[in-house]
Design brief:
This protein is an alpha+beta fold. The chain is built from 14 helices and 21 strands. Helix 1 runs parallel beside helix 9 and helix 7 crosses helix 8. This is NAD(P)/FAD-dependent oxidoreductase.
């Protein structure tokens, strides 16, 4: 009998398992993959997420694995540039974008060191119920016989195709349709700083250094372009760079060498799922998913994984009932993630609403305000420091925005 079973061992599941095991709880973690192994990812960890790795004693491992530091953002959105960097968060003055074959193995091994029992290549086939309450899982390790394990709570950290979510019929809410699709690969030969640029024709490209002396290079286009893109992905991939910033398209052709095939992903709609119930909880993409354009997936997985571990620990320690603890986790997750969710789904539309266009245009005229905005994106500055009415008044005054052009709220 385990205290907790975690289904899914990547950037949401491993932190939950590790943190609970470090507090003395008996934890089983299963995953259908073996490690190290790759998975679709932006790789980008914001400073707020790196702060969690630092507190857990794992950031140095990520850096020691040869993950390069990023200390400059070259951001533009339909002609509005923000070039600079956020102030340090908890002493962290850079971001890191590790390949998942690097990061996930570090996380799984940290869980093992904490005392988590890990079963790789395990496919969960069903949940075990007792009078409507989840009390365990069933599944197979490889081609072996079906096994059953029981626990006080089961955590689904198994991605947006979550088997746990499906078995408990976790309903979706606050759904916002996905705007785009992504193609990405890895290039050597580039010396680019971080690029994050949206053009005028519903197209975006991004690039940032990762392990093995390579850059992850990606494009996102609106869904109505998907059919044309599929007809000639190689040409259309490069054409996005030519359209958004022709100089980068030329450099990619002349200096870059693609090391792996292009990888497509038509990601699902943005959503929240009901993420708690009798004996179960969801974390990471299993419970909450948003467009990859802001790269907040892994950072949120760390933040919400720690939050969930804290609440489960309270219940297992007898401070409150498990049902109350899981309900509070879901409530706090929704409250804390709402600004990132709103900002991400807005940026993913490829067209800024007038209010946000006015604000970002003003911010782009000031190095200090650019630093503050990039700090908000990094998770270290509260949105009210920019978007509250008195903050907007200071911004407009500092950057000389005429009175008749000032906007103070979303339409």
């Amino acid at each position: 009998m385990f205290d907790v079973i975690v289904v899914g061992a990547r950037c949401a599941g491993s932190p939950v398992a590790m943190l609970l095991a470090r507090r003395g709880h008996r934890v089983l973690m299963v995953d259908r993959s073996s490690f190290p192994s790759d998975t679709v990812s932006t790789h980008y960890i914001h400073q707020a997420g790196l702060s969690r790795l630092q507190d857990w004693g794992l950031l140095d491992e990520v850096i020691a694995a040869g993950t390069p530091a990023v200390r400059k953002m070259n951001f533009s959105y339909t002609g509005i540039p923000l070039v600079g960097w956020a102030d340090p968060i908890d002493g962290i003055d850079a971001v890191y974008c590790p390949r998942r074959v690097v990061l996930d193995e570090i996380l799984v091994n940290a869980a093992r060191r904490a005392g988590v029992e890990v079963i790789e290549q395990f496919t969960m086939t069903d949940l075990v119920f007792d009078e409507g309450r989840v009390v365990g899982i069933r599944g197979r390790e490889g081609d072996g016989p079906e096994q059953e394990f029981r626990s006080s709570v089961v955590v689904g950290a198994d991605g947006f195709h979550s088997t746990v979510a499906r078995k408990v019929n976790a309903e979706l809410y606050n759904v916002r349709p996905a705007s785009g699709f992504i193609y990405y690969s890895y290039y050597s030969g580039l010396d680019w700083e971080m690029q994050h640029k949206t053009g005028f024709h519903e197209q975006w490209f991004g690039a940032w250094p990762t392990n093995f002396d390579q850059h992850m290079v990606a494009v996102i286009c609106s869904r109505r372009q998907l059919k044309e893109f599929r007809q000639d992905p190689e040409r259309r991939f490069l054409a996005v760079f030519d359209d958004v910033e022709p100089e980068k398209g030329q450099q990619l052709r002349e200096l870059g060498r693609r090391e792996e095939p292009l990888r497509p992903m038509r990601y699902p709609d943005n959503y929240y799922r009901k993420s708690h119930g009798p004996g179960w909880a969801l974390v990471g993409d299993a419970g909450y998913h948003k467009d990859p354009i802001t790269g907040w997936g892994m950072t949120d997985a760390f933040l919400h994984g720690e939050l969930l571990a804290d609440k489960i620990n309270e219940a297992l320690s007898g401070l409150r009932t498990m049902d109350d603890a899981l309900a509070e986790y879901a409530k706090l997750r929704d409250e804390e993630s709402a600004p990132v969710y709103d900002f991400t789904t807005t940026m993913a539309e490829f067209h800024l609403p007038p209010f946000l266009e006015t604000v970002l245009s003003a911010i782009s005229k000031s190095d200090a305000w650019t630093t503050k905005m990039l700090g908000m994106i990094a998770g270290g500055v509260d949105g009210g420091e920019i978007f509250a009415p008195d903050a907007l008044e200071r911004l407009y005054n500092d950057t000389g925005v005429p009175e008749d052009e000032r906007l103070y709220e979303w339409a």
